Amino acid sequence: MLPIGAATAVPPTDEALLRRAEYLDVTISPRGDYLAMRLPFDDRTVLAIVRRADGTTTATIDPGKEGYVDATAWVGDERLFATWSRKFGNVAEPYSMWSLQSIDVDGSNRRAFHGSVVDPMVHDQERVLVAECVKVLSGACQTRLREASTTGRGKLRDIVDGPVPDANFVTDRTGRPIFAHATDDDDIQRTFLRRGDAWVAVNDESTSGVEVFPIGASHDLRHGYLWSERLAGPDVIERIDLQTGAREVVASDPELTPAMLVHSFDRSEVIGVQVGTGVPALRFFDETHPHAQLYRELASAFPEDRVLVSSATRDGRKAVVHVSGDREPGTFHLLDVATGDLSLLVRSRHWLQRDTLARQVPVTIPARDGVVLHGYLTRPLAAADAPLVVLVHGGPFGVSDAWGFDEEVQMLAARGYAVLQVNFRGSGGRGRAFIESGYRQWGGRMQDDLSDSTRWAQSQPGIDPRRACIWGASYGGYAAVMATVRQPDMYACAIGVSGPYNLPTMYAWGDTRRSRWGKGRLETTLGRDGAALVENSPTQHAARIQVPLLLVQGGRDERVPPQHLREMRRALDDARRAYEVYLPREETHGFFSDTARREYYRRVFAFLGKHLPTGEGAAATAMPYGGGSTDERE
C-alpha cells in the first residue's frame, strides 16, 4: 500500500466518485445455492438472483423505470420477498409502495401483497411472518402480526394485534412474538413485552423520560435485548428476562452510544455491539459465543475497516461478509466458516483504489465552555496549508456524522481541501442529554460549537489558518448561512442547501408543522419565543453577511419549502448582498435525480473554486450583486 501523500496516488475524479455503486447488498440463500444482489441503475434498482455454482442470473425483479427494490428477505431455499418504492409524476423522490414482491429463484410464482416482513422464518420453507395494517384509525393503523404462506397463496393466519396503533413487532427465532413498540403522534415511545396472552408495558416515555427499543432475543429464548436511552449519558444495551422482566446492562460506554449492533451469523440474535468514532471496537455480551471469536478473526483480517456478516446459510457453514470503511466503499466476501477462507464476491466500486482516497480521522475538539465535541478531519493526500471546508450535517437532533466512505468528503479532498465534520450539541451518538443540550440553541450554542471547531481545525498542521468556507444541507444549510452572520470574518463563502432561513416560517410552512407530533417537536426543539426566533434567523441579518452565498433549493421540498429561499433572497436583495441560486424544480428535500445531483456538484465546486481556490496564492473572485444572473427566479 502506498503511503498517504505519495506522488503516484492520484485522487479520483468527480465522475469516478459520483458513479453509482454496482452492488448495494448481497445475501446468500438459506441452503447456499443462490445469491440475491441489489443493483442500482440511473432510473431503477433491480434485484438479481445469481446461482453460485456457475454465476448465472436465474431471475430478476425489475420494478421498471422510476422503480426501486429497497430490501430483500430470503423466506426459503428458493424464494424471497422484496420491498420496493416508485417515483410519481415530476417528483424526484421515490415513495414506498407498502407492498411486498415475491419470486422463486427461477423467476416463477411471482406474487404481490400488502404488509412488511417481520420474520422470514428461514428454518420454515412454508411460512413467513408479516405485519399488516388491518384497520385504518385517525392518522394511524391498527397493525396485526400474521402468518402467511411463502407462496403468497391461501388465507393469512392471525397471530396477535399490536397493543397500540402503529405497533412494530419483534419475534424470537421460533417466530413467537416477544415485543411490540410504537411512537405516537405526541412523540411518545412505548415498548411492550408479550407474556402469556397479554402485552405488558416495558417502557412508557411519558413517565420514564427515555426511549427503549427492543432489538431481539437470545438463542435460548430466555432473554430479550433492549436499546435503552438514559436520562444522562450514552445509550446502553440491556438484557431483559422474558419471564420476570428483570433488566441488566450488557454493553455500555462512558462517552459513546453503540455505533452498530452485531448479530449472530444467521441474524437470529444480537450478540454484541460495535463502539467507537473510527474503526469500531467489538464488544460481545458473551465472549464464549461461537461467533465472537470468528468476528474477531474477521476484524483482524481487515484492521482498517468495519466488518459485518450480512447473511449466512441455515447450517452456518457459509456467510456473506460486508467490509467497509473511510477508504473502502464496500466489498462482499464469502466466508467458509469451517476453514476460515474468504473469497471475494464483488466490490461495490471496483474502480476506486484505496491509496487514492483520503483518511477520515476522528478528532476531539474543546468547545469554549469545556464540552468535548467529537468530529472528523480529512486532509487531502498531498497538500500543504489546505483551505478548509466545514461540512455541517442536517437534522440536527439525533443525527450525526459517522466514520465511513463519504463521496462528498472525498470529492473535496481530491480537490485539495481539508474537510471538517463536527457533531455539535444536539447531534446523536452520545445519548439523550447531549441531544437535548441543543434544544432551542439554533443560532446559539450549536452555532458556537461550529465556530469553535473551525478555529480548532485552522490551528492544526497542514490547514490554512485564514481560508475556510462552510457548507450544509437542511439544518446544515441554516447553520452555514447563520455562520456568516455570527462570524462574518471567519469564512470566505457559504453554501446553504434547503435551509430554514427564517425560523418563524417553520411554524407556517412545511410538513413538520402539519402533524401533532411535528408541532410538538418544533415547540420542544425550536421554542416559541418569537423574539428569539426572529433574532436567530439569517433573513433578519442579511446586511451583516459579507461573503458570497450559494443557495440551493428543491422546488418540491415539503420539509423545508421554497418559501424559506424566497424570504432569504428578498432579504439579500434588500441588503444588496451577493449570492447565486440553483433551483432543481423536481427535487424534494435532497437529491434523487442523477442529472440534478451532478449539476448540483458542478455548481458547488465551481463556486468553491471561485471563492476558495486551492491554488497557492489564488485570490477569490468578486461576485456581482444579486442572484438572478445564475438561475431563474422561482
What does it look like?
By secondary structure, this protein is α+β, with helices and mostly antiparallel strands. It contains eleven helices and 35 strands. Strands 1, 2, 3, 4, 5, 6, 7 and 8 form an eight-stranded mixed beta sheet that branches. Strand 32, helix 7 and strand 33 form a beta-alpha-beta unit. The protein is globular and about 70 Å long. The two termini are 50 Å apart.
Structure characteristics:
eight-stranded mixed sheet, 11 helices, 17% helix, 36% strand, disordered N terminus
Summing up helix and strand content along with how strands pair, one would put the structural category as alpha+beta
The oligomeric status of these chains comes to single chain
Relative strand content: 35-45%
**Mean of all residue-level pLDDT scores:** 90
Low-confidence stretches: 1-7, 616-634
Gyration radius (Cα, Å) is 25 Å
Distance between the termini: 50 Å
Shape: globular
What percent of the residues sit in helical stretches (DSSP H or I)?
10-25%
Instruction: State the major sheet.
Output: 8 strands, mixed
- Counted by DSSP, the helix tally is 11
Count of distinct strands: 35
Layout of strands and helices, then pairs:
Layout: H1 14-18, E1 25-28, E2 34-41, E3 44-51, E4 57-61, E5 67-76, E6 79-86, E7 95-104, E8 111-114, E9 116-119, E10 127-137, E11 140-149, E12 157-161, E13 168-171, E14 177-183, E15 189-195, E16 198-204, H2 205-208, E17 212-217, E18 223-228, E19 236-241, E20 247-251, E21 260-263, E22 270-275, E23 281-284, H3 290-301, E24 306-312, E25 318-325, E26 328-336, E27 342-347, E28 360-366, E29 372-378, E30 386-392, H4 407-414, E31 418-423, H5 432-436, H6 445-458, E32 463-473, H7 475-486, E33 493-497, H8 516-525, H9 530-535, E34 549-552, H10 563-575, E35 579-582, H11 594-611
Parallel strand pairs: 3-5, 30-31, 30-32, 32-33, 33-34, 34-35
Antiparallel strand pairs: 1-2, 2-3, 3-4, 5-6, 6-7, 7-8, 9-10, 10-11, 11-12, 13-14, 14-15, 15-16, 17-18, 18-19, 19-20, 21-22, 22-23, 24-25, 25-26, 26-27, 28-29, 29-31
